[in-house]
Structure formats: structure tokens, C-alpha cells
Amino acid sequence: MENDMYDEFGNYIGPEIERVPEEAKSSGAGELMEDFNELQRGARDFPPEEAAPSDPRIETISNEIVLQEDKRYYPDLEEVYPGAEVLVMEEDIQPLSEPIIAPIKTKDFDIVDKVHRQVMAYDYLEGFFQNPDLIRNVAVLGQLHHGKSSLIDTFLSYTHGISFDNKNERRFTDSRKDERERELSIKAKPVSLVLQDSREKSYLVNIMDTPGHPNFFDEVVAALRVCDGALVVVDAVEGVMQGTERLIKQALTEGLSIVIVINKIDRLVVELRLPPNDAYHKIRHMLCLQT
């Protein structure tokens, strides 16, 4: 039935609609205007102290032009969490060159030095291992920076044919990267050398270079358990220090023979500038020798 009231173009062709007289329109509009005027007069007569408080959540709409960067779609974090410290992390702060899950890297502390030639033939060295009576195990003890590793470098210069240079210490026993960076021994390192005694008889000497720092005293104890004797290195200027006394007591506890080596005697002349007689008496006082 509704389709019969419109033609194919959508025009209304149904019965004529009754029109509202102009007097009724004017009377209805007049009543609305009178009601609106009464509301305005009532708002003027309303006392200000009894007026309803304004709601801060209701924002007034203005016709100001707001730029795109000044628009606020969400409240600030200080408004949502008042009195709390808010930290905002930037996105994509990790560079593209760094993977999200980094692969496990194995730390390599050892440095493999080039093998220098031996003065002795390897077949000659193998003969010592078959005769335990010609093998000596010696531990080199001493305070930190008293010259233990440098003394072993001197031994290596004779057995391996290496020119020893005081300005450029190789430190063969300090084979770890952290040891060379910190310039101190951390692990006990063995070195096998063929040395002769006063009667020119050759022995295979397994020298154990031990650290002098007190934090690595366990390495010294482990080295003394497998050695036959101890070589105690003492600085001529610093003398026998507390760490040296501790090492000597540990060697005596193990029942080892001790040999004292006074190192860095040139410091008495270069640094302290002592005459020969004063340097001699200082060494005697360091060794506690009685006249």
C-alpha cells in the first residue's frame, strides 16, 4: 500500500495531507517562546551561592583552531596517576645491528704464542721423562710484582734461544688475556726446562710459576703439593713482606726446601742511590744475618 503512494521517481501521489493552519503554528511558537523566557527569568533570580557547581569534566567547546601536534586524544600520565613517578620508554631503542636474542659467546682467555725452537732435541728431552731421578719440580714463590715471571723468562732465554729484553717483557707464563692486561699472574703455569747444576749435570726442571696476589693463594697451595722445592723471590728494595712470610710458612708446612733469590738489586742503585757498603748492609738486614 505504501508503494502505491509514490510513483516510480519517488514523488508522492497519495491523498492530500491536511495542512496545519497558520494560526496554530503561531500559537505553538508563541507558547514555546513564553516558556523559554520564563526559564531565563528564573535563572536570573537564582542566587549565586546556591548555583550548582561546575563539573570540571565538562569541557567547553570553542571554535579555536588546534594544530595536529597540540591535539590531546588521551589524558597525560600525571593526570591519571597523580603523585607517582612515571617512566616512559622509547620504542625501538635497540639498534638493528644488535640481535634481539644474542648468541652465547664463549670467553677465550688463553693466548697461543708462537712455539720457539728448543736448544735441546726433543728426543733428548724424552729421555728425561723415562728417568724420574733426573726430574725436579720447583715452585717459584714471591710477593706480587717481585719478578717471578721475569725470572722464568730469563730461564727461557737460555733454553729456547730467545733474546731477553728488559724493555719488552714477553711473560711466557702469563698466557691469559686478562693476565697480560692486568700485568699479574692469576693461574699457576708449569714450564719444563733443561738446566745444569754446578757440576754441569743436566736435569729436567719443571718450574711452576705461581701468582703473587693474596687472592690467588689457593693456586700456590696446589702448586706446592706437587713440587720438591720452592724458589722464593724477594725484591731487594721492598724486602720480605707479609705475603712472602705467608708463602714461606706454607712451604715449610709442606716440608719443602727453600732457596732465596734476591731480585731487582739494581733498584738499590738506580732508585735509592745507595753506595755499595749501604746496599750490602741493607741486604744483610733483609736476610736477618748476624755479624
Q: What multimeric state do the chains show?
A: single chain
Q: Residue-averaged pLDDT, rounded? A: 79
The proportion of residues in beta strands is 5-15%
CA-to-CA gap between the ends?
Answer: 142 Å
Structural class per helix/strand content?
A: alpha/beta
DSSP helical segment count: 9
- How many strand units? 5
Order of helices and strands: HHHEHHEEHEHEHH
Shape verdict: elongated
Strand order of the largest sheet: 2-3-1-4-5
Rg (CA only): 49 Å
Report on the biggest sheet.
5 strands, mixed
Helix content: 25-40%
Low-confidence stretches: none
Describe this structure as you would to a colleague.
The protein is an alpha/beta fold. 31% of the residues lie in helices and 13% in strands. The chain has a 5-stranded mixed β-sheet, with helices on both faces.
Q: What's the gist of this structure?
A:
The chain has 291 residues and is of the alpha/beta class. It contains 9 helices and 5 strands, in the order H-H-H-E-H-H-E-E-H-E-H-E-H-H. The protein has helices at 22-45, 77-80, 122-129, 148-159, 177-182, 217-224, 242-253, 266-270, 276-286; strands at residues 135-142, 189-196, 202-209, 229-235, 257-263.
Please specify the SSE layout and strand pairing.
Layout: H1 22-45, H2 77-80, H3 122-129, E1 135-142, H4 148-159, H5 177-182, E2 189-196, E3 202-209, H6 217-224, E4 229-235, H7 242-253, E5 257-263, H8 266-270, H9 276-286
Parallel strand pairs: 1-3, 1-4, 4-5
Antiparallel strand pairs: 2-3
